[in-house]
Amino acid sequence: MVCEKNPLVRKIRELYEQIASLSSLKPSEDVNAFFTQLVVTCIPPSRIDVTKLCKDVQDMRSKLIRLCGEAEGHLENHFSAILASYENPLHHLDVFPYYSNYLKLSQLEFDILTKHCPSVPNKVAFVGSGPLPLTSIVLASFHLKSTIFDNYDIDPLANSKAIQLVSSDLDLSGRMSFHTTDIINVTHALKEYDVVFLAALVGMDKDEKVRVIDHLAKYMSPGAVLMLRSAHGARTFLYPVVDPCDLRRFDVLSIFHPTDEVINSVVIARKSPSDKQSTGQQPLGPMKLPNKFFDIEMFNPLLNHVNLMDELDIEDQIS
């Protein structure tokens, strides 16, 4: 079992204790410093396997992911308010310190989506859009220029702030809407979407994440695409992991593990055309893949954009 003897785990434990002791996780010199150290510690490629962590470290990891989520929420609220002070907020998105990461991640997700879905989606849902819905904004502005975006968030204040950001842009405000609800309460409307994006921090632990995925599987149309953000290696101390076997009634197409400053892995799956739930038959069980697909070689696709798709297609490797 990997436990406190591991130098990486010891360092992460030290940072967790410092972060947990802070009186507030709103942006400040200390908050920024500790989380920067944490990210720098977790970014380098690592073979650490979170399934082999001892219970104490597993508990610490779960708490740390929630602290990261809380801090990320404060950061987005902070910069959403700053952007809203401009006459044209979308002209100043680069004031957000991680905007370039969103540009890279959105490009990666668009390229993955294009490979598996050659036609442009008519309607997309983004679940967990938050007060600073950069993924939706970037995709709608640069990649999916005719697509309708429905953004879902449980927080009415987050949606109010997000609306302020796009309201001055005639094109985006006409194609982008914001819905305040728990996605679990959205049912038949999910059948309208060609693609559903699930934010990394929707479902902060395994049970919560699987509950949301199962709900999407129940109501998404067969053949529709689900794009999820996951994590790999030490980055799993920052974000929850989506395992292929969590994607019941989906066919996993590809998994991508960037190794640069883009933290999140990307998983793309398609709602199984053979899903017979609506006819009363039993739903499909968990998808099982050969073990080799759970340890995918890490790579940096953003260094060679032309060869982005020359790597990890699970559907190709299985066939």
TrEMBL record:
<keyword id="KW-0808">Transferase</keyword>
<dbReference type="GO" id="GO:0030410">
    <property type="term" value="F:nicotianamine synthase activity"/>
</dbReference>
<keyword id="KW-0949">S-adenosyl-L-methionine</keyword>
<dbReference type="GO" id="GO:0030418">
    <property type="term" value="P:nicotianamine biosynthetic process"/>
</dbReference>
<dbReference type="InterPro" id="IPR004298">
    <property type="entry name" value="Nicotian_synth"/>
</dbReference>
<comment type="function">
    <text>Synthesizes nicotianamine, a polyamine which serves as a sensor for the physiological iron status within the plant, and/or might be involved in the transport of iron.</text>
</comment>
<protein>
    <recommendedName>
        <fullName>Nicotianamine synthase</fullName>
        <ecNumber>2.5.1.43</ecNumber>
    </recommendedName>
</protein>
<dbReference type="InterPro" id="IPR029063">
    <property type="entry name" value="SAM-dependent_MTases_sf"/>
</dbReference>
<comment type="similarity">
    <text>Belongs to the nicotianamine synthase (NAS)-like family.</text>
</comment>
<dbReference type="Pfam" id="PF03059">
    <property type="entry name" value="NAS"/>
</dbReference>
